[in-house]
Amino acid sequence: MSMIVARMQKMKAENLTGIGNHNQRKTENHSNKEIDIDRSYLNYDLVDNTQSYKKDIEKFINEKKSSPRAIRKDAVLVNEWIISSDRKFFENLSEGETENFFARVKDYFAENFGEDNIRYATVHLDETTPHMHMGIVPFDKDNKLSAKRVFNRVALQDIQEELPKYLQEVGFEIERGQRGSERKNLTVPEFKEMKDEQKEIEREIEIKKDELLAYTKDRALKTTLDDIKFKREMKEIEVPTGEKTLFGREITETVKKPTGNLIISEKDFKSIQDFNSYSKKREVKFLNLLDTDLYKENEGLKAENKELIRENQELKNSNNKTLGSFNRLKEENTFLRDEISDLKSEISLIYQSTKSFLKERTDDIEAFKSSFKELVQNVSEKLNLKGLNSYFKKEYDKDNPIKTKNKLEFDIESLKRRSAETNKVNKKEKTKTNNRGMDR
């Protein structure tokens, strides 16, 4: 039996234009050599809520989101699902059955993740194997955008389990992929393209590593500012002593005072210049590092982690409230069970007491039965008008079980025999009476 292919990829704002051009075949130059542009007219849309992926999807999100806060630039805006199977599976389907297959898949996702959250569902028939690109905006039930909550690990496992069963129920012979397997159903060109992309990614990683090493392995200065030797520049000045000569002139003395300048060697001055140049280069590299994707991604992850911690705390608080409500309901349920049990016992006692009371005061047993039955029916009817079950009548029904069919048939036959015997007796009496009349 063929296996379902249902794999998901996350789309951020910067990915939407490219994936839109690919899905809508807005260009004739494709890196995927499996695309036959002469057959592209066979492609069709099951859902077409957008002409410009980026513009229309961002507009939809801003109109629907419950929070007034702006969407983060690195947020996942669309979870794109690629749905397919192997070539043999589609070769056994007619054109109408193939269309029904993709329509049923779309219905499954619409039922579980919201019809209006599916912004596009495009079926490609111009490649080797038919497949569908379906974009779902990850809004939760509170209209909060969160791919991590909507398509978490449990949800992804449920899709892999439930989707093939859903398709089997509507007549498609297909099963889920291997459990725990990362195998993808790729054509040879797709596999080669994936390997080329992998090599390119590995090259980019090596470049990033080299850049980071460059930041951490700068030329170390041989001399630090702590090693700089200097001395203060001094100059001699004349200052008054406050004493006077015999001729009345004030006596002065020569003292040395700092000029505010420092004297360093030419070598140390060169070291300071080197340090200044080194500091400027470090500052430039640091600013460049702040502008790299790696740093931005790290900052984004920090913000996301902070948001997840907040949401986790909210869930904990909500869970504690729910647990408290559950415990209160559990206690109330136990109390009500005990109270209902007591009421049933009380009703049973009232029933028996009423029955004994009326029976002791009625000489005719048939009159008692009729009156008691009428009482039970009267109580039952009044309770039924109020939407309540009559446990009083249930006690009566237990006390007076309905006769079985065989018992009823036996009673009917007995009545018939008694009636026939009575008729015979009446006929004999009538004959005797007639005979006596004739004798007279």
What would you note in describing this structure?
The chain has 440 residues and is an alpha+beta fold. The chain has a domain of 184 residues: BirA Bifunctional Protein, domain 2 (2-Layer Sandwich), CATH 3.30.930. A hairpin with a 6-residue loop joins strand 5 and strand 6. The chain is elongated. The protein starts with a strand and ends with a helix. About 2% of the residues have low confidence.
Which features does this protein show?
single chain; 440 residues; alpha+beta; BirA Bifunctional Protein, domain 2; five-stranded antiparallel beta sheet; two-stranded parallel ribbon; 15% strand; elongated
Oligomeric state, counting identical vs distinct chains: single chain
State which percent range the strand residues make up.
15-25%
Shape: elongated
Strand order in the largest sheet: 2-4-6-5-3
Helix segment count?
12
- Mean residue pLDDT: 79
Report the major sheet. Answer: 5 strands, antiparallel
- CATH class label of the domain at 2-185: Alpha Beta
Give Rg in angstroms. 48 Å
CATH T-level fold name of the domain at 2-185: BirA Bifunctional Protein, domain 2
Secondary-structure element string = EEHEHEHHEEHHEHEEHHHHH
Q: Span from first to last CA?
A: 106 Å
Q: Provide the structure class.
A: alpha+beta
List unreliable stretches of 5+ residues: 181-188
Brief synopsis:
With 440 residues, the protein is an alpha+beta fold. It is 58% helix and 15% strand.
